[in-house]
Amino acid sequence: MDKIIRLNLTDGTVSEEQVAEKYKKLGGRALTSQILSDEVDPACEPLGRHNKLIFAPGLLGGSYMSSSSRLSVGGKSPLTGGIKEANAGGTAALALSKLGIKALIIEGESKLGYSQYLYMSSDKMELRPAETAGLGVYESAKLLFKQYGEKVSLLLIGPAGERGYTSSGITNTDPQGRPSRFCGRGGLGAVMGVKGLKAIIVDPSGSQGIQYHDRKAFLELNKELIKMLKENPATGETYPKYGTAAMASRTNALNALPTRNFSQGSFEYTDKIDGDYLYKVIQEREGDGSSTHACMPGCVIKCSNIFADIDGREIVGPVEYETIGLMGSNLAIGNLDDIARLNYICNDLGIDTIETGAAIGVVMDQGLIPFGDAAAAIDLLSEIGNDTVLGKVLGQGAQVTGRVFGCRRVPVVKGQAMAAYDPRGVKGLGVTYATSPMGADHTAGNTIRAQIDHTDPSHQVETSRKAQAMAMTADSMGLCVFVMAALGTHLDKLAQLLKYYNGTKKCGQDLLDASVNALKVERYFNLRAGLGSAHDRIPEFMQDEPLPVTNQTFDVSTEQLKQVHQ
Amino acid sequence: MKIHVSLHDTLKSKINPKTYGDKDVIYIIINPDSSVNDLLKALRLSPKLIGLVIVNGRQVGPDYQFSDQDRVDLFSPLAGG
Predict the structure, then answer these.
(1) A275 touches chain B (CB under 8 A)
(2) How much is the ipTM here?
(3) Up-side HSE of residue B10: CA atoms within 13 Å toward CB?
(4) Closest by alpha carbon to A428, among A276, A309, A298, A254?
(5) CB-based contact, A247 to chain B, within 8 Å
(6) A453 pLDDT above the threshold of 60
(7) Which partner for B52 in A20, A226, A487, B75 could form a disulfide, CB atoms 3.0-4.6 Å apart?
(8) Is the dihedral of CA A239, A324, A55, A176 positive or negative?
(9) How many CB atoms sit inside 10 A of residue A155's CB?
(10) Is the pLDDT of residue B80 over 60?
(11) CB atoms within 10 A of CB A375
(12) Of B9, B58, B81, the CB nearest to A321
């Protein structure tokens, strides 16, 4: 990938630049964070004209490696007030790679008064008026595919992003055109929305083939790595068949499954929403449903799914563990159809199901609607859709909602809602939530796989530190984090794969060192943005209130947390 | 002593259905002071298939020794999502 595209929305220009030497060895999250650090004043207003939005495939983007076309989107987060990278699978990263694009930098803001698209192809890149302004994500995708053909990749925001809601994300389309692969966390949809951009259409047709440094050696090593993915029990069996939903029975057994606004760690109806049950329901209903689905072309892990209703008609794809957690057990909703419907509506509005589930959990806790009332939860999503005052509050996420409703139990760090792992049950991930530059983020360093006692506070600093570096490594290479389940102990092979792809000479340890450095860049941005160690905290209620059954509190000390990034 | 074992998702298909049927929880009699490995041997499950062992709601390591009426959840390996 040899070029950087710069879109300036203030003057409406699109320009092409050569990749600066310092960026050549960076990709994905390491690249977006470095560019942000170089070009954006960390003290700027996230929804102001000085913030930038950066889209970047990873270092392996465009290659034949399985699960290597994750897309990183970076910017200053209006939710956390710090640096943010959100990533997703889908088709956009591959399409950008085919166009030879290492990064797309979006800066300035449009003063035109109407929304625009950015159209990108091998022979032109230009802004066009957005006819889908104000429309839901699914309708927008339908109209755009009709206009541009089925072979393009779409990046979209929903009405929530257009309104600047900080729970909004940026979605891109899967290989069948579903606009449901969300770069969901941290409100980057709002950044795109206030800049006046509704969608990016990436048309890779007519582009030159991808160049390899040593194609033959790449394909040979690739074959070996794909075999390892298929033979590993997690990536070869559990993920393809049960998807991320398989995590529900595990966290439930660990008493770490957020239930009733993080007041319990296990849910009495987990067996109606876990991986086993999801598989059973999808299989029984047949029709449009599928338990095994690839969100990126060529991925052999295929953890995604398509969920159909009782008549076999697609409701939404995928139903992920995070949604089963934050919009299922966290809301005491023990029904997959309800969860799938909530999921679809959130997707259509363009909002993060984690953030929104946490916000709804907060208002349930305050008695606005009862726990378990899925119909009432759907009504709240209608409020968001209709931009009512209540909708505006919920649309800003859990922390704002908690403040407005006077809730003392708000599960956030640096303003971002926690994922579907209670830090009192998986304390290493609690350390990640507290100390990651991303805020409460499970993809930034999940410790669930570590063979340690998750409730022993003494092991967690080291575990989180390693997990954060590993996550950054995956995020920078464009690899799905699940690849690391099988290949995390084979970083030398991944480094070699990289060498065969683009000639970069690194070993596994070099990859980790580069990741540690990238984390430093992010932390330094945050410091200059005003986020210091005082913000590296788990909410006090989780330190004071033990979870029932295991009686665990989050008891990793502040002193220990300070050691993570030393 | 008697312990209650729940096998989750991929592990369900790895034991002999004739022995244990389609139940969610199976009961197994093992010797006192049996370890996790002893249990796996009794179930004819390779340790390589196991990623997480939970006993009475608490995660345990391979050297855990069972007590009567322990409730065990066995899971295959998995990374987060």
Answers:
(1) yes
(2) 0.91
(3) 27
(4) A254
(5) yes
(6) yes
(7) B75
(8) positive
(9) 31
(10) no
(11) 9
(12) B81
As a whole number of angstroms, the distance between CA A210 and CA A124 comes to 19
| Strand runs labelled E in A313-469 | 314-316, 412-413, 416-417
pLDDT range class, residue A459, cuts 50, 70, 90: confident
Domain locations in chain B as residue ranges: 2-75
Alpha-carbon span A123 to A562, nearest angstrom: 50
Is A243 near chain B, with CB under 8 Å?
yes
Q: Which residue on chain A is closest to B48 by alpha carbon?
A: A233
Say if pTM beats, i.e. exceeds, 0.95: yes
> Is the dihedral angle over the CA atoms B41, B43, B48, B50 positive or is it negative?
negative
Q: Are the beta carbons of A271 and B9 separated by less than 8 Å?
A: no
Cβ separation of B10 and A238 shorter than 8 Å? yes
Tally of CB atoms within 10 A around A150: 9
Contact (Cβ atoms closer than 8 angstroms) between residue A330 and residue A261: yes
d(CA A37, CA A40): 6
Both tokens of residue A403? 């403040």
Find which of A249, A295, A319 to mutate to test the B interface (most B CBs within 10 Å of its CB).
A249
A324 at the B interface (CB within 8 A)? no
| Distance in Å, alpha carbon of B25 to nearest chain A alpha carbon | 13
List the one residue out of A334, A331, A337, A342 whose CA is nearest residue A369. Answer: A331
Length of chain A: 566
Contact A417, A394 (CB under 8 A): no
Fill in the amino acid letter for B10. T
The A314-316 sheet, strands edge to edge: A290-293, A304-308, A314-316
Q: Exposure of B20 by Cβ count < 10 A (0-12 exposed, 13-18 middle, 19+ buried)?
A: middle
Partners of residue A120 on adjacent β-strands:
A125, A202
Integer Cα distance of A333 and A337 in angstroms: 10
State the number of CA atoms in the 13 A half-sphere of A125 facing the CB.
Answer: 20
What digits encode the pLDDT tens for the residues A283-324? 999 999 999 999 999 999 999 999 999 999 999 999 999 999
Q: Are A405 and A368 in contact (CB under 8 A)?
A: yes
**Any residues with CB less than 8 A from the CB of A102 and at least 6 apart, and which?**
A1, A2, A3, A4, A19, A23, A27, A31, A56, A57
Check pLDDT > 70 for residue B21.
no
Q: What's the token pair of residue B37? A: 């490995």
> CA A360, CA B71: separation in Å to the nearest integer?
34
For domain B2-75, the CATH architecture is Roll (3.10)
Give the chain A residue whose CA is nearest to the CA of B78. A234
* CB pair distance less than 8 Å for B9 and A244: no
Residue of B nearest to A445 (CA): B80
> Do residues A41 and A47 touch, judged by C-beta distance below 8 A?
no
Report helix, strand or coil for A77. coil
